[in-house]
Amino acid sequence: MKIPFGKVILTLVMVSMMVFGSIGTAQASEPLYYYEKYNLIRYDNDRSVNDGDLLKKNSSNYSIYLYRDYYFSSTEGYQGTNGERVFWADISGNYYYVTSTKVQKYSFATRHSDGDFDYYYETIRKCDIITPRKGSFVGTVTGTINQYPSDGLQGDYWYVRKGLVNNNPTLTLSNPGENDYFGKEKAINVSGSVKDVDNGDTLSVKYTINGISTHTNKTLQTITANGSSQSFSNSIPIDSSIPQGIYTLKIWVEDDKGGKSNEISRTIKIDKTSPTMKIIVGK
């Protein structure tokens, strides 16, 4: 009978692990960074052609023009000079046409006729690489530390990492309740939970009791954020600095990078009057 019972216990443990996951500490969220995003400017790294010529022959008068110092159009993807479109080519009869950030190789006919003109391509240095660089600013994006380059190309854009994104902490308040009474014998208990997904931030639980300068923007408790929800509990003593009366207590949490949570307000009543007992003596 012991063996089947042991099997049942083992099965329950395995099921609980499958449902709830392995036992361990909750992992903090990975911090986010700001990235500046830029368009690309594309240009070839070999603009001047010195070891090859393009000959343009006018078939009507047989004049020949020698073309050198080609320019590059990054928007349309061709080499040209003096308003004429040409292609860089090597002696094997290939030209290189620019698309996006790559150079693609195509075959072409050595001799091309265009109306009155025949174009003859001689040996021209091939376009071996197109080098993109940072262009105009597009906007700001966020991502983890390895999601984009720190300063470089990814896809069709250039990214520059600028700094950490600071997330505001959040606050949940359990105590005090609305219209709770406090007095000499009962301090104001403040409890609840805070959460900041930025692991390692220093969190300060703060409070203000309206109209009392010594209890304005005071730090109640300090916590180091671990990325998950964290409980806190502390108390505000009722001393001579807090007269009897009705007050608004405000609670919030701040991090050390300027982030601030929502404020939660509670109406509290301070009663320092000792109870009296009236003794009635019977006749």
TrEMBL record:
Lineage top rank: taxon: Bacteria
UniProtKB keywords: Signal
Keyword Signal found: yes
InterPro entries: Ig-like_fold
UniProt signal peptide: 1-28
Name of the protein in its database record: Ig-like domain (Group 3)
